[in-house]
Amino acid sequence: MTPPEPRHPTSDDEELLEAETVAILSEYTDAQRLLRIQDELRAGFTQLSHIGKAVSIFGSARTPRDHPRYEDARTLARHLGEQGYAIITGGGPGIMEAANRGAQDAGATSVGLGIELPHEQSLNAYCDIGITFHYFFTRKVMFVRYASGFVVFPGGFGTLDELFEAATLRQTQKIRYFPIVLFDSGYWGGMVDWLRNSMLAEGYIHPADVESLLVTDDPTDCHGALDAVEHRRPRRDRKAA
Length: 241
Description:
Blueprint: H1 12-48, E1 54-58, H2 68-82, E2 86-89, H3 95-105, E3 110-115, E4 129-133, H4 136-145, E5 150-152, H5 157-171, E6 180-183, H6 185-200, H7 207-211, E7 213-216, H8 219-232
Parallel strand pairs: 1-2, 1-5, 2-3, 3-4, 5-6, 6-7
């Protein structure tokens, strides 16, 4: 079936009226958007303000439950939970589900911060606290503000987005005392080599920017990096986010 042709104003007066209507609707939409942003920030601050020290764990939603990385994420989250950390994820399947599940295994607080997307699913079944956001940036505020650091498992564009946003915030000192751990050297090693051989070689980043990314296959390294930072962090220090 042929789709209908788009409707066009039939007169100058009608065109003027439509333009004014669009302008009014756009202004109204922006006002509503500001209110929604405010509501999302308020909901996040209210529900997460008492979770204590926490770590955000990222990784692909496409990781199947029978994949070794799923079990690695679950084991790591359980280990961190036993050390007193709440676990924060994006609330989806794959690595996120594994980490939330590991948190519940340890009796630690399990947080899922979901995002409204046309093709995404609801929060996984292992979240004690679940918040769904419309805007990526309000969700990102929560990931950084309430975490002592990031542990990043293999993933795609979304995982890289969170990783490099945190790296940028730390490089520019918008956040401090914030370790970024890349779990699975086989996956991340090539990227770190590229950072060193291309970005660093061209002078676009500082050696410390690369050295501060901890690449490991050992869950105890993750806890060690986070614990070292917790001892250095000023009491109730919170990032600029």
